[in-house]
Amino acid sequence: MAKLPGKRITIRPSLKEGEDGRINNNWRRLFLDHLAETSNVTESAAKAGISAGRAYKVRREEPEFARLWLDALWEGYTHLEMEVVRRLRQGDMATPDKGKYDFANAVRLLAAHRDTASQAMAQQRNVSAAEVRASIDRKVEEIRLRLKNERARTDGAR
Fold first, then answer.
1. What confidence tens digit (pLDDT) does each residue in 66-91 have?
2. What residues make up the domain containing 134?
């Protein structure tokens, strides 16, 4: 990851809501690491000890942070995609609490975030966002077909 800028940005009091006094100077790294793991801005901000408002403001004002944010979202998107594919290949349908893994919502999330993911991927690979979106659409369709086939096998076994 590139070196993050340490530039001071003035934050309105309303954007500091939920922060406890002095913030960790490494909040950017903590935020981006957690964002890559979860793709959740609010959780990532809390983990870094900042408000989501501060994170969004810094993203607007620091181009390098905005680029790293996109990279983290792409990484999170890739994690989710790989988790869905792994579960389908291994027939792992259970969650840790013995519930059933929600493939439909996972696929919806992948489809909903494909534009952000394609923007990040295009930036990393230096290709057009349209090419990346087409690639993502193919992958999501493959996952849908696998789910359909898995359901058919499960229903046929009953």
1. 989 988 988 888 888 888 889 888 88
2. 63-158
